[in-house]
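[job 0412] stage=fold_complex status=start
inputs:
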Amino acid sequence: MESTDFLATLRTLHTGGVEFVLVGGVAASLNGATGQTFDVDIVAARDDENLEKLLRVLESVDAIFRIQPARRLKPDMSHLRSTGHKNLLTKLGYLDVLGTIGRGLSYADLLPHSVEMDIGEGVRVRVLDLETIIAIKEELASEKDLAVLPLLRRTLQEKQRRS
Amino acid sequence: MEEDTDALTDYAEDGVDLTLIRAFLSLTPAERLAFLQRQVDAIRKVRALNGVD
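[job 0412] stage=fold_complex status=done
writing structure:
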C-alpha cells in the first residue's frame, strides 16, 4: 500500500495552475471532520485549457490508473474529458480525478459551494463545504455514505454553534 | 465511591464523540491536514510492520 502525501499532491496541482475543487475525505477533514482517508479526490474544470494543465501535472507525477498497475496505463485527454472517476496512482500517492460527483455535479456546480483554504506552505485550494458534502451523501445514501453521516452532521452542528 | 464517568464524556445520542470534533475544529485547516497525514503515515507504518502491504 502506498502512502499519499496530501500536501505535496495538492501543491503540485496548485502550482500547475489546475482549477479544481477538493472533495471526499480530505475535504471533510479540512472542514473539521475527524476520520481517515487515504487518497485525494478532486473535481477539475473540464475545459480543454484546464485539462491540459491537469494532464501536464499528472505526467509530472507519473500518474497511472491503479486498477491494473502492471499495465501502467496513463490517463490522457479523452479520459480526463469524461465524467467518470479516474482512480490514479502517482509518485505522491493516490489521486482520484472525478469528472462529476453525486448526481452529476461538475466543477461549475461545486465551485459556488466551495471555500478557499490555506492548507500550509502558501498553498490555497478550493474545498467543498461541509453542507454540500453532507447533501451529496444524503442523496446518494449508499452504505458507505450513510456510515459517515452522523459524524459529518455533528461536525457541522459544532461548527455552526461556534460561528 | 465510584466517580460518575458520564459527566466526564460528551457523546451525542448517535454515539459520536463530540470532544474529538471540538478538538479537531480548534485546529486550522493546515493543522488538520498535517494531523491527517501523520495518522495515515502511522497506519501505513503499522501495516508494513505486520506484513500487510
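[job 0412] summary: Residues 121 and 129 of chain A are 22 Å apart (CA to CA).
[job 0412] exit 0
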